[in-house]
Design a protein that fits this description.
mainly alpha; 62% helix; 264 residues; 10 helices; homodimer; Ferritin
């Protein structure tokens, strides 16, 4: 960071759209960290409590870096905490997958497998971002999400190729997240603009790599890919969220909003 | 651990009491880790979310080591997960301080200051335990709790010596935890036996060091020590808990108990 030119946004990047793009990446990580925090001391094993806690902390770290970058570009003086705690529901740009309430452990491993596989494709592509700050965030994050992806994959195989009960529950977990997977590949306005400017990547370009990894794990786990869901989520990147999001934000933002200003 | 003699319990230690003593230490850490997990993404700042999450993970790690040691000594084949997830409320030996519901952030920092100060005295003394395994756990943990103690102390000073509002709330936080502090120094049967055998330390021997650290922080924070509470908690180490404990265990144990056996 000693060379100030490296923190400049490439001049052809439309600032508003790029900020919105970064907020989408940040909000995915922030909201999923919140959901994973709910597992601390609630997993089936203490070792797993610690693993899920660490995944949550990794995602919080990614969210912080991305929110800070978005705040810099916005130029309106909002820092990571303003962006995390003082935006309203319609301003959050995360996909529906990460805001869904916590289900059973099989559901969580299905969600983590999809999300970490997607993030792995995402950060791999962002290593080439012409925004050097984002490329640096991606370089750090890719090692973290590689671990998350492997961790979830190992559980999916262990449960899928386990007992009859664990197999059925893992299959049910895959079915439960299926309606929320397609949204990860939706090209919203901000990501199209960011991709055109060379700072971001089109979500639709990540679909095949993400699905290929999930399919390989599912096959190894003696599970099957769920049928095409009859309904699929959309609109998270435009600020349209499910009912669960309001409750989540109430919990997440209550303390900060009760004590406006940094002195408390 | 290559020298098997170092993992043997000193022969004069009464095994049942020593197991009970270790469970008390473990349960304090485990139950407080659960309460701190509730802060993930709910703290006033994202940086603080991560700090509290890391404190929780440190405590979970301490709980794992202590539960594993207790299970070894018990000789009944119970591992850390059996002990964490399959005991009933009356078998948990933590103090009431750690099981109390989450309050505001000032309350949490008051609780952490007391608990980490107590743990710092505790682990310092246990460096001399004749149980080499426990001494090794203490040697690792003391670095962690020194950080927890400093972290809480910095917040208590920042809030106490901050605005009028933050001062009052921090003072209220100290008052709220005051009825639960004396219990940390209660000498129950198991700790008396463990101290006599040289494997443990009398809780009452930790009182003065713990209180001295808290008093110094409170003075620096321009706060005052609360009045002697008219009621004080007791009995946690004998398995007598407050109403909050049942709800906490229901949350903590539900997933594991729903899937008995290790295959799910």
């Amino acid at each position: 960071m000693s060379d100030p030119t490296t923190t400049e946004v490439p001049s052809n990047a439309p600032t508003g759209d790029y900020t919105a793009y970064l907020l989408g990446l940040a909000d995915d990580a922030l909201i999923y960290a919140h959901r994973l925090g709910e597992w601390l001391t609630r997993a089936p094993q203490i070792e797993e409590d610690m693993a899920l806690g660490n995944v949550g902390l990794d995602l919080l770290g990614q969210a912080r870096s991305l929110l800070t970058r978005a705040g810099e570009l916005e130029g309106a003086g909002r820092d990571e905490d303003d962006l995390a705690y003082l935006r309203d529901e319609r301003e959050f740009r995360n996909v529906h997958l990460v805001e869904q309430p916590r289900g059973d452990f099989g559901h969580e491993m299905a969600r983590m497998l999809w999300f970490a596989s997607y993030q792995h494709e995402l950060y791999s592509a962002l290593l080439d971002s012409t925004d050097q700050v984002l490329a640096a965030v991606a370089a750090k994050a890719i090692k973290e999400v590689a671990y998350h992806r492997d961790h979830a994959g190992q559980w999916v195989v262990r449960l899928g190729d386990g007992t009859e009960v664990s197999h059925d529950r893992m299959q049910a977990g895959l079915a439960a997240v299926a309606p929320y997977v397609a949204e990860l590949g939706d090209d919203d306005r901000a990501s199209v603009a960011a991709a055109e400017a060379g700072v971001g990547i089109l979500p639709s370009a990540l679909v095949e790599g993400t699905a290929a990894h999930v399919r390989a794990v599912v096959a190894q786990a003696t599970l099957s890919m769920p049928d095409e869901p009859r309904w699929r989520s959309r609109g998270g990147r435009e600020g349209v969220h499910s009912e669960a999001m309001g409750y989540l934000l109430a919990e997440m933002q209550h303390i900060h909003r009760s004590h406006p200003g940094a002195t408390w």
